[in-house]
Amino acid sequence: MQYKRILLKLSGEALMGDRSYGIDPKRLDAYAKEIKSIVDKGVEVAIVIGGGNIFRGISGASKGMDRVQGDHMGMLATVINGLALQSACEDNDMQTRLQTAIKINEVAEPFIRRKALRHLEKGRVVIFGGGTGNPYFTTDSAAVLRAIEIEADVILKGTRVDGIYTSDPEQNRDATKFDFISFDDVLRKGLKVMDTTAFTLSQENELPIIVFDMNTPGNLMKVISGENIGTKVNL
Predict the structure, then answer these.
(1) How does pLDDT run across 15-55, given as a tens digit for each residue?
(2) Based on CB atoms within 10 Å of each CB, which residue in 49, 112, 145, 218 is the most buried?
(3) What are the beta bridge partners of residue 157?
(4) Directed axis angle between helix 25-39 and helix 67-91, to 10°?
(5) What are the structural domains of the chain?
């Protein structure tokens, strides 16, 4: 395997499948099976998942809601998604732990770095919920922060698009895909990979990012195996 320990970033919208909101059990099970395939190969897996399928704090703020309150609601949405993914993983015979940046002791462990590392070393899938625990930070920032803390080899950003393009391929058929691109080129070209805070944090810590299509069965295994899938961002 090319990577021993990974941080998989999934968007909340990815869990909707073909629905307009909420969670699609079939999509959830498909993701769990993809994760299982690499866990069985000995890869240590941590996951950060968004909450956009349930609630977005910044969207609520744009409609007059207090931004801090909205972001706290978004954090709770990520915990709901984390619980759903945890259940799907356990249905597929994986040991998991859900750790949250906000204290919800009845349903999840608080995030403790040493505990998270121990879980990973024991082969457990660790799901991080609650974002960073602070308003004004996205789950992209949470993903990079947790990846650095657990000393992950790479951040894998699973999306519905098979990489980074010169422009949105869903709107521009002439958009071309990058197989490899540097952090500096992403910033210079104004490409949207992650929010600026998350992206800069990843660059400063020399942590590569691979953007790939998570909805194609087998792609996660191909990425882990070092195949040229998606787009790799590094120095």
Answers:
(1) 998 888 899 999 999 999 999 999 999 999 999 999 999 98
(2) 49
(3) 9, 211
(4) 60
(5) 5-234 (3.40.1160.10)
Say whether pLDDT at 4 is over 90: yes
- Computed over every residue of the chain, the mean pLDDT equals 94
**Contact yes or no for 218/227 (Cβ under 8 A):** no
Say how many C-beta atoms besides its own lie within 10 A of residue 63's C-beta. Answer: 7
